[in-house]
């Protein structure tokens, strides 16, 4: 699959097979994802793998589709609002890189915002100088839904004088 196909074919997966995922491969994808653009090479992301007790405490309605891999992704808040926004954008790029690398290797992902609630932050022990960007579930997809139509980019483009 070329990059364009990976981008167009990637889906959010909400149901995973019970097969385990090689932890070293996940670590390699995370390392490669770290080449995401980030202002002044701040590398503002932190990855926190979630074990079974913490997973149960999160009490996600779908149990993250029974994914074998679960981690939260944090973004350092930075010294001011501009740096915070830059860091959040960098972490989103990092996550997109990870999800595309996983998909290219037959692994699906699910990006949940469950950790953003006050309870989620407490359960995940998010330090006060970090934002939680999401909880990522990863595994072999049990089902892959069809792509939904996207809005024509022509409707999203504006030109300034």
TrEMBL record:
Its cofactor is FMN. Keywords: Flavoprotein, FMN, NAD, NADP, Oxidoreductase. CDD domains: YdjA-like. SUPFAM superfamilies: FMN-dependent nitroreductase-like. Residues 2-150 form the Putative nitroreductase TM1586 domain. It comes from the Bacteria. InterPro entries: NAD(P)H_nitroreductase (IPR052530), Nitroreductase-like (IPR000415), TM1586_NiRdase (IPR029478), YdjA-like (IPR026021). GO terms for molecular function: oxidoreductase activity. The keyword NAD applies. Belongs to the nitroreductase family. This is Nitroreductase. The lineage of its organism: Bacteria, Bacillati, Bacillota, Bacilli, Bacillales.
